[in-house]
Design a protein that fits this description.
It is a single chain. The protein is mainly α. The protein contains 5 helices and no strands. It is rod-shaped and about 145 Å long.
Length: 264
C-alpha cells in the first residue's frame, strides 16, 4: 500500500507546479498582447510618418515651382484661347466697307492701331491674370493636399487610440489563460493537504503505533502490553511488568474502639 504521506507530498508538489505553469502561461499571453499592440502602434506611426514625408516633399521649393509652372501654363493656354476668340472679328472689321477706298484705308489703319492696342492689352492682362491665378491654383492645391493629409493623420490617430483602448481588455483576457492550470494546482494542493492530515489521523487505515514499533531502538513492551499508558521508548537495562502483575496492597483498617471504664 502506498504511503499516504508520500502521496500527499506528491499532490502538493504537483499542485505547486501546475500553478506555476498556469502563471507562466498567463504571463506569456500578456507579453504577447503587449507585443502585438506595440507592432500595431509602430505600423500606425510608420503610416503617419509616410503621410508627413509626402506632405513635406510636396512643400519642397522645387516641387512648388514645378506645380506653379504647370498651373501657369494651363492658365496661359486658357487666356490665349479667350483672346483669340475676340481677335478674328476685330481684325475683319472694315474689309467690306463701301465708298472711297482712301477713306477706308485711313479708317482701317486707325482701326488696326486701336485693335492692336486692345489686343495687346488683352494679352498683357491675360498673361498677368494667368500668373496670378496660377499662384492661386498652387495655394488651392496645397490646401487640398494638406486637408487630405490632416484627414489621414486623424484617421490613423483614431485607429491608434482605439487599439490602445482595447489593450487593457486584451491583457485582462490574457491574464486568465492559465486559470485552468491554476485551478487544477489549487485542487491538487488541497488534496495533498487532506492526504497529509488523513495520514496523521489514521483515516487511510494506517496505524502510527504499529509503524512506530518497527523503528530501531523501540521496545513495544516498555510500558507493558496491557498498560493503559500505551507504548513508549525503549531504555536499555529497564524492564517493565504489566500493571496486573503488581501486588495489590490491602487497605488499612483505621477503625478505633472506645475504651471501657468500670466504676467501683
Amino acid at each position: 500500500m502506498c504511503n499516504p504521506v508520500a502521496i500527499g507530498l506528491a499532490l502538493t508538489a504537483a499542485g505547486t507546479a501546475a500553478q506555476a505553469q498556469g502563471q507562466r502561461r498567463a504571463q506569456k499571453a500578456m507579453t504577447g498582447a503587449r507585443e502585438a499592440e506595440r507592432i500595431r502602434q509602430k505600423g500606425y506611426q510608420s503610416e503617419s510618418d509616410a503621410i508627413l514625408a509626402k506632405s513635406m516633399d510636396n512643400a519642397d521649393k522645387t516641387n512648388q515651382d514645378q506645380q506653379e509652372a504647370k498651373a501657369l501654363s494651363e492658365r496661359q493656354v486658357a487666356a490665349e484661347k479667350a483672346t483669340s476668340e475676340v481677335r478674328a472679328p476685330v481684325e475683319a472689321t472694315g474689309e467690306n466697307l463701301a465708298g472711297d477706298q482712301t477713306a477706308n484705308a485711313v479708317i482701317n489703319t486707325e482701326q488696326a492701331n486701336q485693335a492692336a492696342k486692345s489686343l495687346g492689352y488683352a494679352g498683357q492682362q491675360g498673361g498677368a491674370k494667368a500668373k496670378l491665378l496660377s499662384f492661386n491654383d498652387l495655394n488651392f492645391n496645397n490646401a487640398i493636399a494638406n486637408a487630405r493629409a490632416a484627414q489621414d493623420h486623424s484617421r490613423i490617430a483614431g485607429f491608434a487610440k482605439g487599439s490602445s483602448d482595447v489593450l487593457p481588455v486584451e491583457l485582462e483576457y490574457a491574464s486568465h489563460k492559465g486559470d485552468g492550470l491554476k485551478t487544477l494546482g489549487s485542487a491538487l494542493q488541497i488534496a495533498g493537504t487532506i492526504a497529509g492530515i488523513g495520514a496523521g489521523a489514521g483515516w487511510w487505515g494506517s496505524n502510527p503505533a504499529a509503524a512506530a514499533a518497527t523503528a530501531p531502538g523501540y521496545n513495544a513492551t516498555s510500558l507493558g502490553a496491557g498498560s493503559s499508558f500505551g507504548t513508549g521508548p525503549y531504555v536499555p537495562g529497564w524492564t517493565t511488568q504489566p500493571l496486573s502483575s503488581l501486588p495489590v496492597q490491602q487497605p488499612l483498617n483505621l477503625s478505633l474502639k472506645a475504651p471501657s471504664f468500670v466504676l467501683r
